[in-house]
Write a structure and sequence with these properties.
Layout lengths: L4 E2 L2 H4 L3 E6 L2 E6 L2 H8 L11 H8 L7 E9 L2 E14 H4 L2 H5 L4 H6 L3 E7 L10 E3 L9 H16 L5 E8 L5 H5 L3 E12 L7 H6 L3 H13 L4 E4 L2 H6 L1 H12 L13 H9 L3 E7 L5 E10 L2 E9 L1 H7 L1 H15 L4 E5 L3 H5 L4 E11 L2 H4 L2 H6 L20
Parallel strand pairs: 6-8, 13-14
Antiparallel strand pairs: 1-5, 2-3, 3-4, 4-5, 5-6, 5-7, 8-15, 9-14, 9-15, 10-11, 11-12, 12-13
Helix pairs in contact: 2-3, 3-13
Length: 403
């Protein structure tokens, strides 16, 4: 980390609370503004941990996520931060419509047991570990069990909130916190994060295409030809205001097909993020010959990598125009133009993402029910939601093999 700062307790005490565990002090706030000066020292290299992003989603009540920001001090020195979201989980309502209607569906039956307030270590809007950031890997080596007890006690006494569970998300399999596993958390697999690592020799999109096998170059040209008649442009803040409602409809059409849908973005989500993040938040639209928006996608210029964010598209037109595949190619082109090292394409649509060069990176979450007896049953419950691994990993590159 860039630096270690002394935390001025007097500066933030009016809007924060704190508790002690040995030499470790934890300062808790519900507003990022109250701890911004210290927080930003740990988030300078990731937009999704930045004060502007967290402030923007903090002020979207439609998300129904209450944030808690924790500064971790060791002997008076701020050595790390933790980010929590409080969210009510009703897993049955988060399933797709067809799963809810299938009364004998195993997931439908199992999901009825998950209906309670949950404290999330991380960010439900994102793929990846956005729950903690420290000066060094050893900085967060405190007694997690005692921290957990104190944090839940703080919520109960100070906020009259009693979460029934804790969810820690998302960890690559070689980075799962040992302390959590040792504290009774159940580890369960989630869909992998799809990442395209950009070759240093790809200075242009044509360089990227040149690395393709012949059949994948043909596939690209065929997809491009099918999109003829669609115009493509970057959307300004004024554009986002103009197309706000239509973008929301396109987004809802896609989010309704998700395996789980734990939240719904508000209509002004993209407008507010553009206001907050400026040039680092990129939104692009596809328009037909009547200037009707057929699709949009968003991504974040996250310093050394490009991170795909939410999107929406006309599903009826998608097959004929191959809109989704064309969007993936455009995202790759943007990443190359911005000289990124990698492009994070997140979860879902795994097989088609491998056709543009993305590679799956396995991830896990951890879950704990605060009732120790009830917690014993949640290992089998989450095993029912193990992601479907029935997909072919393809490689478009000359030196790659399909699996």
């Amino acid at each position: 980390m860039k630096c270690i700062l002394k935390t001025d307790i007097a500066q933030v005490k009016d809007k924060t609370n704190s508790f002690q565990i040995g030499d470790n002090q934890f300062i808790v706030s519900e507003e990022i503004a109250s701890v911004a000066d210290k927080w930003k020292e740990f988030a300078y290299a990731d937009v999704f941990l930045s004060v502007p992003f967290l402030h923007a989603i903090e002020n979207m009540p439609e998300l129904k996520m209450k944030p808690f920001y924790v500064l971790h001090e060791l002997n008076g020195i701020c050595v790390g931060v933790l980010y929590f979201q409080l969210r009510h989980f009703n897993l049955k309502s988060a399933l797709p419509a067809e799963s809810k209607e299938a009364k004998l569906n195993l997931k439908n039956w199992v999901s009825s047991f998950v209906d309670f307030d949950t404290l999330v270590l991380g960010n439900l809007l994102l793929t990846g570990n956005y729950g903690c950031c420290a000066v060094s890997p050893s900085s967060h080596k405190f007694d997690w069990k005692e921290f957990q007890i104190k944090m839940l006690q703080y919520l109960k006494v100070e906020k009259q909130i009693e979460p029934s569970a804790i969810l820690a998300k998302d960890f690559y399999n070689n980075q799962v916190p040992i302390q959590l596993e040792a504290s009774g958390f159940h580890k369960f697999a989630v869909q992998p994060n799809m990442i395209l690592h950009l070759n240093d020799e790809w200075h242009t999109f044509e360089d990227y295409l040149e690395a393709f096998k012949a059949k994948y170059r043909v596939r690209y040209r065929r997809a491009l030809k099918k999109s003829e008649g669609l115009t493509f442009k970057e959307l300004s803040l004024d554009d986002l205001a103009q197309y706000m409602n239509h973008m929301h409809e396109l987004y809802l059409g896609i989010s309704a097909t998700a395996v789980f849908n734990l939240f719904t973005l508000p209509p002004d989500y993209f407008f507010k993020l553009k206001q907050a993040l400026g040039d680092r938040f990129l939104v692009y639209g596809y328009f037909d010959q009547n200037n009707t928006m057929m699709a949009f996608y968003s991504c974040v210029d996250n310093y050394d990598h490009l991170q795909a964010h939410f999107l929406g598209y006309n599903q009826e037109e998608n097959h004929e125009k191959q809109i989704y595949l064309n969007m993936l190619y455009k995202i790759v082109e943007i990443g190359i133009v911005h000289h990124q090292k990698q492009i994070i394409l997140s979860r879902t649509a795994i097989e088609i993402k491998t056709t543009v060069g993305a590679v799956p990176h396995e991830m896990s979450c951890l879950f704990l029910h605060t009732n120790s007896i009830t917690n014993k049953f949640f290992g089998p419950i989450f095993s029912a939601f193990k992601p479907d691994d029935q997909f072919i990993i393809r490689s478009p590159f000359k030196d790659g093999q399909d699996q």
